[in-house]
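Incident log, support desk, overnight shift.

02:14 A customer reports that sequence design results differ from what the structure should imply. Their input is reproduced verbatim below. On-call engineer (initials T.W.) acknowledged and began investigating.
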């Protein structure tokens, strides 16, 4: 499963944990302004905003999992298995194939408000990129550098765009249900709780942080949603880039899936394959992966953004332990 956040200490940082059991050959991919996008049912875009993110590249086409553009818009696709439903093309609507959703939005729009507007009469269509690349059931977090985000979900009732007051997204259930569930944790506090439970009884607070005792710690989507909302909302807001990037990785580490914790079959485990953190102001993608906890970075502005060729860097690396003696 996955977790995505928008963290806004000073600059704005957008990214996610991608949790799964098999990789799709994802890379760090920069799509410059003059790479020609040929969309399935939308007009081709010869010239558009440049973008950087994590994508599988098939037939020289970037299939983005999460990315931002040069204007500071970010979009991440997360599994919505069991709840998501795409529909055939509708004649009176803007039809966007699910695998093009991220690249279309980032090529075209600058802000969350523009995206909202553009989706008022849209349909996420159920076409596949290729025979062996079927559409995967996703929903999306879309954020920008105003610090605002929305969630886009296509379910059996159609397309929904929800304002996101918590700037986080995990997986099923439906987003409004995830928000409703947060009320069950209204008494959680980062530190010592007030004893409203038995005010007349002297409860010995035997440990620090008993106010977080009822925070869920499961790997399931609902637990991760509650926990990451708490971590994000209480994270420090520094002004230094390195401190804020460090905070971002720690927020997502609070819901990280270590191998062994989420078994999906005999000897098969879902785990956090990579974490991405993209600075919406600076166009820098920071990342690490399960086998290499060191943070690496790619700066889109160091590339020729007027080019028409994709720029691709490795995402999955080997652990590089710094021996001190
Ligand atoms: C599997 C993950 C979602 C992780 C997750 O939540 N898994 C747990 C679960 O299924 O519950 C999704 C997120 C983005 C998806 C990819 C992107 O949408 C891009 C691309 C789209 C193609 O239609 C299918 C392949 C491909 C490359 C997708 C494969 C599945 C990915 C990688």
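02:41 Re-run completed on a clean worker. Output:
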């Amino acid at each position: 499963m996955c977790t995505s956040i928008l963290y806004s200490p000073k600059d704005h940082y957008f990214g996610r944990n991608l949790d799964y059991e098999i990789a799709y050959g994802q890379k760090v991919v920069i799509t410059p302004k003059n790479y020609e996008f040929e969309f399935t049912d939308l007009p081709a875009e010869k010239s558009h905003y440049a973008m950087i993110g994590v994508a599988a590249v098939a037939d020289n086409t970037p299939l983005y999992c999460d990315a931002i553009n040069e204007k500071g818009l970010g979009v991440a696709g997360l599994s919505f298995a069991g709840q998501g439903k795409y529909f055939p093309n509708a004649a009176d609507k803007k039809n966007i194939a699910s695998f093009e959703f991220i690249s279309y939005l980032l090529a075209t729009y600058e802000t969350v408000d523009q995206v909202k507007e553009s989706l008022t009469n849209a349909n996420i269509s159920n076409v596949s990129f290729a025979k062996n690349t079927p559409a995967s059931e996703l929903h999306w977090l879309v954020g920008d550098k105003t610090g605002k985000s929305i969630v886009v979900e296509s379910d059996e009732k159609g397309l929904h765009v929800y304002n996101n007051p918590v700037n986080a997204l995990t997986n099923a259930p439906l987003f409004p249900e995830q928000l409703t569930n947060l009320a069950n944790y209204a008494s959680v506090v980062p530190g010592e709780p007030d004893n409203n439970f038995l005010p007349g009884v002297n409860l010995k607070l035997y440990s620090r942080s008993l106010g977080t005792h009822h925070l869920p710690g499961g790997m399931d989507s609902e637990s991760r949603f509650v926990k990451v909302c708490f971590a994000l909302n209480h994270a420090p807001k520094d002004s230094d880039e390195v401190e804020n990037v460090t905070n971002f990785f720690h927020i997502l580490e609070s819901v990280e899936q270590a191998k062994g914790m989420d078994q999906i079959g005999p000897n098969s485990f879902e785990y956090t394959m990579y974490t991405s953190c993209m600075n919406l102001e600076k166009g820098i993608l920071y990342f690490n992966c399960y086998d290499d906890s060191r943070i690496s970075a790619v700066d889109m502005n160091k590339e020729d953004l007027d080019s028409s060729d994709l720029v691709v860097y490795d995402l999955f690396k080997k652990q590089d332990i710094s021996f001190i003696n």
